[in-house]
Amino acid sequence: MLAPPRAPCKPVGHALHVGTMLAQEPLIRLSVFAAVLLAMVALEHAFPRRPQRLSWRRWPSNLGLVALSSLLLRLLAPAGAVGVALWAESQGLGLFRWIDAPFWVAAPVAVLLLDLLIYFQHRVFHAVPALWRLHRVHHADPELDASSGLRFHPVEILLSLAIKAVAVTLLGAPAEAVLVFEVLLNATALFNHANLALPAWVDRPLRWLLVTPDMHRVHHSEIERETNSDFGFCLSSWDRIFGTYIAEPEKGQLGMVIGIEGYRADEQQRLDRLLVQPFRPG
Predict the structure, then answer these.
(1) Where is the chain membrane-spanning (predicted)?
(2) How much is the pTM?
């Protein structure tokens, strides 16, 4: 019987690299997050796609959700998915290590596969009733802008981290690739939820690669067929490959109704209501 691969001995320089990455990971993610958020807010103001009525009244709750989620993650899993990747490396775990894949192969393939995972995770959260109640907090936003890309229930965020942790371990994804993926996921979520009017000559070619705001907005339609489409967050190819792509909403970008019936009222947007929404009847 073949023995499982053993974790190779790591030099002191590697230990310093690990410590540096863990120390810098929050700063890198926060810096990119702040820069992209500010850029999206500025662009939304300059080139709005749809008129907004509740814009600034929704922001405290949407930002409150991401603040609570970030606090929970730091308390329960301070190293995050990057820490899981570094731990798996120290144990010699994961497919890429077992097949001795070079970094230049493992890193981009890991980013692609993690993005594919998020696509299927998104579909599962729509299909399973208990998970949909959590994800419904995101879809219950009556308007769409960059802050909507932050509006996820903390329990959904924790479940998502657990799913990513398992995938990162099984793949043996390089920590650098996991960090790139996490930064891309956050940045593209802000971008594709933005109330941003991209010119058609930009949107059409761009959406062959990335999920654009007009593409993802279809996913937030009140029409069920449209809600169950365009699940991608970063790469748009998964929706085309797996038959869930819808190019435009039935009622057009300006005529479509966003959100969920019964959850559009102002009082439903309060942070306390969003936190208890998945656990209330209805």
Answers:
(1) 26-43, 63-88, 103-120
(2) 0.90
pLDDT digits (tens, 9 = 90+) for 31-65: 999 999 999 999 999 999 999 876 677 899 999 99
On whether the CB atoms of residues 119 and 232 are closer than 8 A, the answer is yes
Which amino acid belongs to residue 3? Answer: A
124's tokens: 């599962």
d(CA 22, CA 25): 5
Express as a percent the part of the chain with pLDDT over 70.
90
Q: What are phi and psi of 28, to 5 degrees?
A: -60, -50
> Taking each helix axis from N to C terminus, what angle separates 80-91 and 175-192, rounded to the nearest 10 degrees?
160
- One DSSP character per residue, 93-149 reads -SHHHHTT--HHHHHHHHHHHHHHHHHHHHHHHHHSHHHHHHHHHHHT-SS-SGGGG
Determine how many CB atoms are found less than 10 A away from the CB of residue 6.
Answer: 8
Residue 242: other Cβ atoms inside 10 A: 14
Residue 252 tokens read as: 């057009």
The candidate with the shortest Cα–Cα distance to 179, out of 4, 28, 8, 37, is 28
CA atoms within 13 A on the CB side of 275: 11
